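Researcher: Go.
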Amino acid sequence: MPDNRPSWDVYFSEITRKVATRSTCIKRRIGAVIVNEKHEIVATGYNGVVRGAPHCLDIGCIKDEKNIASGTGHEICPAVHAEQNALIQAGRNSLNCTLYVNAFPCKICARLIVNAGINRVVTSGEYTDEEGLDILKNAGVTITHIGLGDRNDVVGNEK
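Model: Structure:
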């Protein structure tokens, strides 16, 4: 009987889509999953404002108000990125783990990924941040792009 189960990469990449549904951002819904070498989920994270702050879903997006393009002006946005939240949840348990994320990490997240000891990133998102890509490559982090076809879209993700 053929094994038609999804590969581990597809399985965990699909989970990022479900995690992303918890996002409180009106522009992009991003989910991240950190997985150890035994294929166990160590932590998950999604993008949203810091604890206790009003959600963008409730008060609107400051980047929209200031006409700042998606993927830029990270320092203006009050949100913590999905990768950052997953790394915070994992603590040092992320050493030698794989990070699955449905958007390519920005340069800020790439630096955190390297310092957290993540050794592999699997993304279904496009490489939109060349600096982030360079940081990961120069640190020896393996990068795998996985195509999920039309299943890649999460409501609210913009190109």
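Model: The beta strands are 31-35, 41-46, 48-49, 79-80, 98-101, 120-123, 142-145.
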